[in-house]
Amino acid sequence: MVWNTNLRWRLPVTCLLLQVALVVLFGVFVRYDMDADPHWIDKKEAENSTSDMENEFYYRYPSFQDVHVMIFVGFGFLMTFLQRYGYSSVGFNFLLAAFGIQWALLLQGWFHSYYRGYIRVGVENLINADFCVGSVCVAFGAVLGKVSPVQLLIMTLFQVTLFSVNEFILLNLLEVKDAGGSMTIHTFGAYFGLTVTWILYRPGLHQSKERQSSVYHSDLFAMIGTLFLWMYWPSFNSAVSNHGDAQHRAAINTYCSLAACVLTSVALSSALHKKGKLDMVHIQNATLAGGVAVGTAAEMMLMPYGSLIVGFICGIVSTLGFVYLTVRGPGQGLRAGESGGLYVPDRRWGAP
Amino acid sequence: MVWNTNLRWRLPVTCLLLQVALVVLFGVFVRYDMDADPHWIDKKEAENSTSDMENEFYYRYPSFQDVHVMIFVGFGFLMTFLQRYGYSSVGFNFLLAAFGIQWALLLQGWFHSYYRGYIRVGVENLINADFCVGSVCVAFGAVLGKVSPVQLLIMTLFQVTLFSVNEFILLNLLEVKDAGGSMTIHTFGAYFGLTVTWILYRPGLHQSKERQSSVYHSDLFAMIGTLFLWMYWPSFNSAVSNHGDAQHRAAINTYCSLAACVLTSVALSSALHKKGKLDMVHIQNATLAGGVAVGTAAEMMLMPYGSLIVGFICGIVSTLGFVYLTVRGPGQGLRAGESGGLYVPDRRWGAP
Amino acid sequence: MVWNTNLRWRLPVTCLLLQVALVVLFGVFVRYDMDADPHWIDKKEAENSTSDMENEFYYRYPSFQDVHVMIFVGFGFLMTFLQRYGYSSVGFNFLLAAFGIQWALLLQGWFHSYYRGYIRVGVENLINADFCVGSVCVAFGAVLGKVSPVQLLIMTLFQVTLFSVNEFILLNLLEVKDAGGSMTIHTFGAYFGLTVTWILYRPGLHQSKERQSSVYHSDLFAMIGTLFLWMYWPSFNSAVSNHGDAQHRAAINTYCSLAACVLTSVALSSALHKKGKLDMVHIQNATLAGGVAVGTAAEMMLMPYGSLIVGFICGIVSTLGFVYLTVRGPGQGLRAGESGGLYVPDRRWGAP
C-alpha cells in the first residue's frame, strides 16, 4: 500500500521537481542570443548597416521547424507500429523530448554558448537541443515497453548530459567534423539505448501475442513517422551547416543518399523474404539509414554520385543487419519490446 | 416533405451564395499588396535598390505555411478523438476555415489594409486571416456535434465579423499589444464558442455510449493534431512580429513556455488520476495552453526563464481547470459533444 | 517453379540494376550547381559582394520541403482510403518517387541544366524533380491495385522520360508559360495513367467487396494526404516562380483558388447526393482541382477575384465530372482498383 502510494506520486513529483530545477537554472544562466536581443542587434545594425534579413533567424528557422517535426512527429509515430503501444510511443516521446530540450539548452549552452556569465540562446541552440533529444529518441526505441515514464526521464537526464560531454570531446577537443551528427547523435543514441536495454533485460518473460493481432492501421501510423523523418532529413543534416553553399550542399547530398537507400532496402527486403514479400519495418528502418550514414560528410564535396553510393551501401547493410544480427539493434529493440517487456502495453494511460 | 426538401438544399445553396458574394466583394475591393505587384515593386526596387530577398514574402512565408498547417491539420485532427466524429471534425473544420479565411481577408482588410480604394492583400494578410479562423476553430471545439454545417457557416460569418471589430477596438483604438493573439484569438474564440453552446444547450438528452467503444486509433489521430499545433506554435506567435530580433525572440519564448507546460500537465494529469494514470486529453489540452498563455507577451523581453514560468503555471492551471470546473470549457465542450448532441455522429457523410 | 523463382527475384534485381545505373550516370554527368559549390560561389561573392542570403537555397528551400511533403505524404496518403490498400498506396508511392526523383534529375538536367559537360544540380532541380514525380503519382492513382511494383518502376522510367521530353517541347520549343505545371504535370499525368489503365484493363473480373467493409479510419488517413496537398499547394505553384513579387503573387492566387474550390465542391457534393449527404471522396478530389486549375496562370496578374472565379468553376466541374463521367478519371481509377484489380490487396507485404 505504501509502495503503491509512493509509485502513484512518483511521476508527478519527478516532473514537477525537474521543471522547478529548470526554471531556477534558466533564471540564473540563460539569456537571449545577440540576434534575439534588441540591445545588441540595434548596435550591430547601426555599425554594419545590415538588413534584418541577415538575422540568424531567417537562415535557420525553416530548418529548425523541420527538425522539430522530425523529433516530435517523426520519432513519436515511428514506433506506433507496436500494437497497443501507440499512446506510450507518442506520449512518452513527447514527455521526454519536452524535458530533454530544456536540459540540453542548458548543458550545450555551458559548453558552447557561454559568454559574459550567461548562456546566450538563439535559434541555432534550439536546433542543437533538438539534435541532442534526437539521440534520446533513438535510445527510446530500444527500451520502449520496458521502462516507466520516470525511468525515461532519468534516462533522458543522464543521456543528455553524456551526449553533451561526448559532443564537447568530439567536436571541440578532437576537432572532429560531424555535420549531420552521425556519430554524436545516432551512434551514441543507439549504443546508449542498447546499454540501457541490456541492464534492464530479464530472460524468460513470456512471449506476448500482441503483435499477431491486427496491426494494419498501426503500421500506417508508423509510416507517418517514417515519412516525416525521411522527407525532412535534408533539413536535419543541413540545419547548422555554414551559411550559403555548405548548407545547400548538405541538403543535396542527403537528398541523394536517402533516395538511393529506398531502392536498395526494398530490393534487400524482398530478396531476404522467402516468398519475395516486402516488410514495412525494413522500409522504415533502412530508408532512414541513408540519412544517418551521410550525416558526418553531408556538407563535404561528396558529389551527388558519392551520396548515391553511400545510400546504396546503407540500404543493403542496414537491411541485412536487421534480418541477420541477433543482437538487439535499435530496430530489434522495438520488437523486443513485445517479448521481454516489464510493462503491459499502454497501461499508464487511462481516462479520468 | 417540403421541409425535408428544403433542408436537403440548404447546404449547397448556402455555400454557393456565400462564395458568389465573396467573388463579387473580392472583385470590387481586393487587389495585390505592394510586395506582390510588379508595378509597385519595380518602382520600390529602383528607388532603394533593395534585393528581392527584402520582399515580405521571404520574411513571412515559412511561418505562414506553419500556421496554415495548424489551422487545417492541427485543429482539424485535434477533435478526431470523439469516436465516429472524425469526418465531421476534419471535414467541417476544412469547410468553415476555407470560408472563414476569405471572409476574414475582406473584413480585416477593410480595417487594416485599405489603401487608395482597395484592400491590398499580401502574405501578412493571409497569416492574419488564418489567425482569425483559428478563433473560429476554437469555438468549433465547443459546439462540435451540436450544429449542422450550415449553422457552422453562419457562426463563422458572425464570428469573423465580431473578431475583426474586436481586434480593431483592442489593437487600434485601445492600442493593446497582443502578438500571439491570446486575447483576440483564443479568449475571444473560447467565449464565443461557449456562448453558442449555451444557446444551443438542451438538457435531458440521453448519454451517448459512443465514447466507451474503442477510441484507440481516434486518440492517435488526435495526437497528430496536437503535435502539429504544439510544434508550430512558435511560428504562430512570431508570424507577424516585427522583422529581426522581435520575431526571433517570440519564437524562443513560445518554445520555452510550451516545453515547460508539457511537464507540468503530465504531472497534474497523473496526480489527479486516482491510480496515477495519464489522460491523453489532458496532454492534448494543457500542453497547448502554454502557447496561448505566452502569446500576448511573446515578443517582449520575457527572458527564457520567464517563459518557462508562464508554461509551468499554465500546465497546472489548465489541467486543474479541465478536471474540476464543471462549466463547459472549450475542452469540455468537446466531450459534451457526446452527451448533449443534437446530431448523430457523422451522419452527414455518405457515399454516392 | 522456375517461373515462380524468377518472379521472386524480379523486384530485387530490378531495384538494384536501376540504382546501379543511376550511380554510374550520376558519376559521369552530375555535379553541384554554382550556388552549392564553394569554388564558384566564393568567386561570385568576391565579384559582386553579395550576401550568403542571396544563395538560391534561401529563396527556394522552404518551398522545396513543402513540395516534398506533398509528393511523399500528400500523394502517398491520398490513396489510403482504399481499404486494405494502405501499405501499397504509401509504400509503392515511396518506392516509385524515390526512383523517379533520381531519374528526373538526370533527364531534366540534360534538357535544362547542362553546362560545360555536366548537369549542375541545385535546389531548383530538386523541386523540378519532385514536380516530375508528382505527375507519376497522379498516374499511379489510376493504376493502383492493378500493377506490381516492378511494373510501377517501369512505368516511372517511361513516364519521367516522356514527361521531360514533353516539358522540353512545351516550355522551350513552344515557349508556353506553365508556372504551376497544370499542363506538364497534372494533365500529362492523368492521361498517362488513363492510357496505362486502358492497356491493363481486363473486363469480367469479380467485384471486390473490400470497399464495403469499415473504411472509417482509412478515410481519415486519406484526409491527411488531402490536407497536406491542399495546404502546401501555394508552395507548389510558387516554388520555381521568379524571385520577389512573382513568387508572392503565385502563392496568393493559389490560396484564393483553393479556398473557393472547397465551398463549391461541398455544395455540389451535397446537391448531387440523393439525401444531401457529403462524400469525403468528392472533397478530396475536387478541392485539389482548384490548385491544379490555377497552376498555369498562378504567377500572372490574375487578381484575387480572378483566382476565386477559377476555384469556383473548378469545384463545380470536377465534382460533376467525378459523379457523371463513366470513363475512368484519375479519381475513379482509384475506385476501379477494387473492381478490376489483377492483384489482391496488399499481398506484397509480409513479415519476415
From TrEMBL, chains A, B, C:
Residues passing through the membrane, by range: 12-32, 63-82, 94-114, 126-145, 152-171, 183-201, 213-232, 252-271, 308-327
Function of the protein: Ammonium transporter involved in the maintenance of acid-base homeostasis. Transports ammonium and its related derivative methylammonium across the plasma membrane of epithelial cells likely contributing to renal transepithelial ammonia transport and ammonia metabolism. Postulated to primarily mediate an electroneutral bidirectional transport of NH3 ammonia species according to a mechanism that implies interaction of an NH4(+) ion with acidic residues of the pore entry followed by dissociation of NH4(+) into NH3 and H(+).
Catalytic activity entry: NH4(+)(in) = NH4(+)(out); methylamine(out) = methylamine(in); CO2(out) = CO2(in)
Name of protein: Ammonium transporter Rh type C
A Gene Ontology BP annotation from the UniProt entry: regulation of pH
Superkingdom of the organism of origin: Eukaryota
Keywords, sorted A to Z: Ammonia transport, Cell membrane, Glycoprotein, Membrane, Transmembrane, Transmembrane helix, Transport
GO cellular component, one term: apical plasma membrane
Native species: Canis lupus dingo (dingo)
Pfam families attached to this UniProt entry: Ammonium_transp (PF00909)
Membrane topology per record: Multi-pass membrane protein
